[in-house]
Amino acid sequence: MTDISKWTPYVLAILRIITALLFLEHATMKFLQFPGPIQGVPYPLPTIMIIAGAIEVITSALMLVGFQTRIAAFIASGEMAAAYFMGHMPYGFWPALNMGEVAILFCFIFLYIAFAGGGAWTLDTARRPATA
């Protein structure tokens, strides 16, 4: 059998990069209405949505390049937990019915990255001094 665990850092990096790009898309929807506006959100944006968008831009950019990955992922995870409880839970308990699945998935993927690190291909790794 082949040991596939050697691929773990690379698959983790792919998870980090793809998730960061998807998270960034939520920010561009808020600020640029690209690829489209967020359904049901009034423009100009409420203050809480501006703050959420700023967190999304900053944390997704940091995670994308793997700089301060754990901190960025932890903050993004917290934002998504707050988004679920403030924006989805009031519409019922079940995530499939309150449209909260995406917030929950982001929350737990970011929480995993906060504990596991960014994997391969990070600026965090490139900045570490080489050990002898």
TrEMBL record:
Ranges in coiled-coil conformation: none
Membrane-topology descriptor: Multi-pass membrane protein
InterPro entries recorded: DoxX, DoxX-like_oxidoreductase
Keywords per UniProt: Cell membrane, Membrane, Transmembrane, Transmembrane helix
Subcellular location: Cell membrane
Major localization class: membrane
Domain of life according to the entry: Bacteria
GO CC terms of this entry: plasma membrane
Transmembrane feature ranges: 7-24, 44-64, 71-91, 103-123
Family: Belongs to the DoxX family.
Name under which the protein is recorded: Putative oxidoreductase
Originating species: Rhizobium esperanzae
Organism lineage: Bacteria, Pseudomonadati, Pseudomonadota, Alphaproteobacteria, Hyphomicrobiales
